[in-house]
Write a structure and sequence with these properties.
The chain is an alpha+beta fold. Helices cover 36% and strands 14% of the residues. It has seven helices and four strands; from the N terminus they run H-H-E-H-H-H-E-H-E-H-E. The protein has a four-stranded antiparallel sheet with strand order 1-2-4-3, with helices on both faces. Helix 2 (49-59) packs across helix 6 (127-147). The N and C termini lie far apart (51 Å).
Length: 207
């Protein structure tokens, strides 16, 4: 019998404690067939508070040059998420932008959205590397939700780049939305999409 994908996580290692790495062929199997779910197919109640805490804990274990944690999480769920979507709809309508209104279904439908905010810090660590760390957070969060048995999708859409929308979410300065990770109970299994040909995209350097 397969282990429950929503079981509690093991206790986090203490600082300085050896972290033993062991082969995990089941992880390779998971990555070989990983597929995002359409946001419009995600329903149900979604992860509860303990599962959300577990997802965030996992997503925070990404490579992070300088240990700056140049990102933070914003949880949107239930009535709060609906209120944000309503506000976005009113904003788009005030601009006469029916296309933007039509794109809000992806945000409205899933029960949970976790926004990952890229928040670069003044440091010797290059800005680009800090942004990459935020992208790694999005990827890990997406994978963790899928491994937990939920469907998940990573989007940005117009409200990730809109100054008024970002201010409404509490972003400031150079902060940007790296991704809205939408999570819910999966519907029908997503169909495989076209994948890039790897041949021609791999080069071996020689002197």
């Amino acid at each position: 019998m397969n282990a429950d994908p929503r079981r509690p996580l093991p206790t986090a290692p203490a600082f300085g404690e050896p972290v033993i790495q062991v082969p995990a062929p089941e992880v390779l199997d998971f990555l070989a067939c990983r597929r995002s779910a359409s946001a419009l197919t995600l329903g149900g109640t979604g992860p509860g508070p303990e599962e959300i805490a577990s997802l965030i804990r996992l997503a925070a274990r990404v490579p992070d040059h300088g240990k700056l944690a140049p990102w933070w999480f914003l949880v949107l769920a239930g009535d709060d998420k609906a209120a944000f979507a309503d506000w976005l709809e009113a904003l788009a309508q005030s601009r006469g932008d029916a296309r933007a209104v039509g794109k809000l279904g992806k945000l409205r439908t899933p029960p949970l959205c976790i926004a990952v905010v890229s928040s670069p810090r003044p440091a010797e660590i290059p800005h680009w590397e800090q942004v990459l760390s935020a992208g790694a957070v999005c990827t890990t969060l997406l994978y963790a939700a899928t491994a937990m048995g939920y469907g998940a999708n990573w989007i940005t859409d117009w409200y990730a780049y809109d100054a008024e929308a970002c201010a409404r979410l509490g972003l400031s300065g150079e902060e940007k939305v790296a991704g809205f990770i939408l999570i819910g109970e999966p519907g029908d299994p997503p169909r495989e999409r076209e994948r890039p040909e790897i041949e021609g995209r791999v080069r071996r350097w020689t002197p």
